[in-house]
Amino acid sequence: MICLYRGTMTMIRSELIQKIADENPHLFQRDVEKIVNTIFDEITDAMARGDRVELRGFGAFSVKKRDARVGRNPRTGESVEVEEKHVPFFKTGKLLRDRLNGK
Amino acid sequence: MSDKTLTRMDLSEAIFREVGLSRNDSGQLVESVLNHMSDALVRGEQVKISSFGTFSVREKAARVGRNPKTGEEVPINPRRVLTFRPSHLMKDRIAAGNAQTKG
């Protein structure tokens, strides 16, 4: 179920799908795949539209705007203009934060 | 920038639409997926969803903080925090999707 990756235990998408499939023997494997993929695709699609996704207890995904700035090429030291851009952001929900700390 | 917030209900609705499960069953599956991810993270594992991103748990050491209002020193206990690293695909999609909209 769990693979070792750089010394840390990792759960990957296919393992998550397998866990859901094991718990739901009445569902076709391909439907379970579609269900799990739909969840992650919906979250990404929402953020691509500039929307927020709030999953109480787990966390919230939102989009943050980074203003345009003058950056520097770290290799050459040359100044480069970096355009304004939008980046994904995740804030952990209170319940999960508490659970991580044994509360 | 974001005018809309999606919730579990919207994810269930998407599963209902894509796979045709009842809204009730779809809701339970959304919950199962979030629970399996949370449980893995609480066990200290990372959760790596290809083309979406990686959730990982970091250990923060104890430090002395300061109440910004009163200037008073307060001890901050060691704790575990969750970080989300979006995939390149997600970053590109969020950047492209929000590029034209006025923040």
Explain how this protein is built:
The complex is a heterodimer of chains A (103) and B (103). Chain A is of the alpha+beta class and 103 residues long. Chain A folds into 2 domains: 12-49; 52-103, HU Protein, Chain A, CATH 4.10.520. In chain A, 37% of the residues lie in helices and 35% in strands. Chain A has 3 helices and 7 strands; from the N terminus they run ββααβββββα. In chain A, the strands form 3 sheets. In chain A, strands 3-4-7 form a 3-stranded antiparallel sheet. In chain A, strands 1-2 form a two-stranded antiparallel sheet. Chain A has a two-stranded antiparallel sheet with strand order 5-6. The longest helix of chain A has 20 residues, at 29-48. The two termini of chain A are 27 Å apart. Chain B is an alpha+beta fold. Chain B folds into 2 domains: 7-43, no CATH class; 45-102, HU Protein, Chain A. Chain B is built from 3 helices and 6 strands, in the order E-H-H-E-E-E-E-E-H. In chain B, the strands form 2 sheets. Chain B has a 3-stranded antiparallel sheet. Chain B has a two-stranded antiparallel ribbon with strand order 4-5. In chain B, helix 1 (8-19) packs across helix 2 (23-42). The longest helix of chain B has 20 residues, at 23-42. Chain B is extended, with a radius of gyration of 19 Å. Classes of the chains: A alpha+beta (103), B alpha+beta (103). Chains A and B meet through strand 2, helix 1, helix 2, strand 3 and strand 4 of A and strand 1, helix 1, helix 2, strand 2 and strand 3 of B.
Average of pLDDT of chain A: 92
What sort of overall outline of chain A do the alpha carbons produce when their principal axes are compared?
A: elongated
Number of helices of chain A: 3
Order of helices and strands of chain B: EHHEEEEEH
* Main interface by residue count: A-B, 52 and 59 residues
Q: How many domains, in number, for the residues of chain A? A: 2
Q: Point out poorly predicted stretches of chain A.
A: none
Query: How many beta-strand runs of chain A?
Result: 7
**Strand order, sheet with most strands of chain B:** 2-3-6
The CATH homologous superfamily of the largest domain in chain B: IHF-like DNA-binding proteins
What is the 3D shape of chain B?
extended
Order of helices and strands of chain A: EEHHEEEEEH
CATH fold title of the largest domain in chain B: HU Protein, Chain A
Mean pLDDT of chain B: 92
